[in-house]
Amino acid sequence: MHDDVACIRCGLALVADFAVTHWPLSGEPAWAADVPRWDQMDAVSTGIADGWSSLYGAKAGCLAPDADAFVLASRAASGVADLAFARRGAFSPQRFVATLPSVILAPVMMMTGWRGPLFCVQQGESTLSRGLSEAAWLIKSGAARSVGVVNAVCETVPSGELVRARFLWLGKSGLTGRPA
Questions:
Q1: Contact criterion met (CB below 8 Å) for 98 and 81
Q2: Are 177 and 112 in contact (CB under 8 A)?
Q3: Strand 146-157 to strand 69-73: parallel, antiparallel, or no bridges (unpaired)?
Q4: DSSP symbols for the chain
Q5: pLDDT of 6-49, one tens digit each?
Q6: Phi/psi at 61 (nearest 5 deg)?
């Protein structure tokens, strides 16, 4: 069953926004001042931060979403960055940004000033469906009114990585959590 159909059937509204980022970035991003060591971020973290900035803005503190929680639905979590770091000889923790799956969303949290529960789901090909299911459960159980689900997929291209970031806003009618 398609994810948005499943959400509609369980009585929840779903709105999705999409952004595509090429990594590595060609210059300093608009959000660089809010994210220390932005130039050391991996493709997924960069794609999510740049996608958020292009869709919703990058000024710190002004766009804190009203979502009660976020679910990061990431196929490989920090596994790709962990492996690359290990293959380079684990030369310095300063050159390594993704030590936990939740770190992937840290740049967005720094940009927006958002604080709250963050859940991580890694389920291979079914990651997005599982993330949406977790978000729906949080809402149906009364633990949250609205939940943001963030998902990103990387594709290798000749000049680097192409990151497709998805920002899904799940809630009861009205979707109070989505940034304006």
A1: yes
A2: no
A3: parallel
A4: --HHHHHHHTT-EEEEEEEEEEES-SS--TTGGGSTTGGG--HHHHHHHHHHHHHH---TTTT----SEEEEE-SSTTHHHHHHHHHTT---GGG---SSGGGGGHHHHHHH---S-EEEE--GGGHHHHHHHHHHHHHHTTS-SEEEEEEEEEEEETTEEEEEEEEEEEESTT-TTS--
A5: 444 455 666 778 888 888 889 999 889 888 888 878 888 888 88
A6: 80, -20
